[in-house]
Amino acid sequence: MIEMQDVWKSYANGVMAVNGISVKIEKGEFVYVVGQSGSGKSTFIKLMYREERPTRGKILVDGTNIADLKNKEIPFLRRKMGVVFQDFKLLPKLTVYENVAFALEVIEESPRQIRKKVMQVLDLVKLKHRARFLPSELSGGEQQRVSIARSIVNNPSVVVADEPTGNLDPENAWGIMEVFERINDNGTTVVMATHNKDIVDRMKRRVIAIESGMIVRDDKRGDFGYEG
């Protein structure tokens, strides 16, 4: 599903954020990416959905080397890859329904299919009853559920989440994790960067730990491994 082959990433200021990483994530896996601030974890995640381009190396997503994609081709990558952010990135003047539908409108789905798919995905994240609400009328946990719904409404093969519970209280964080579990149970590959030690330790999924831009640990059923 995702494979990095000797991937390096350096920035203009001379910082080497990723140092020769090679890793493979199989279809249907649920993978946590952990590491302390400045470890290169965020860059590692951003490389997967081409927010960043590697300085060197190959990144294969469904067999396509996304390192070679032109900027105009990136939106086509994002159609088969859902991305969930810490800060939700919802459109404030659109309702829950409209926020999710927007992802289908840009690829010119029919109105009938849009309604069907949006309501199905809102049911999955338990927000059908909030379809006509604006983001400002929702709790933080509900806003994140809308963000997740928008990321999966195209039925992507993989979802990449960057600190999706970072702004949430523990109760809402666990609710979000239940949503990701359901998505993964349906066959979608999930790759999630997180600082949430409690969630990682209790969920016992694959854990990739990054330090100084390198993978220092890759455990099939791992734990967080840091104190803070």
From TrEMBL:
Membrane topology designation: Peripheral membrane protein
Keyword Cell division carried by entry: yes
GO CC field: plasma membrane
A GO BP entry: cell division
Main location, first listed in the record: membrane
Gene Ontology MF terms: ATP binding; ATP hydrolysis activity; transmembrane transporter activity
Alphabetized UniProt keyword annotations: ATP-binding, Cell cycle, Cell division, Cell membrane, Membrane, Nucleotide-binding, Transport
Domain of life: Bacteria
Ranges of residues in domain ABC transporter: 2-227
Oligomer and partners: Homodimer. Forms a membrane-associated complex with FtsX.
Annotated protein name in UniProt: Cell division ATP-binding protein FtsE
Source organism: Pullulanibacillus camelliae
Species classification: Bacteria, Bacillati, Bacillota, Bacilli, Bacillales
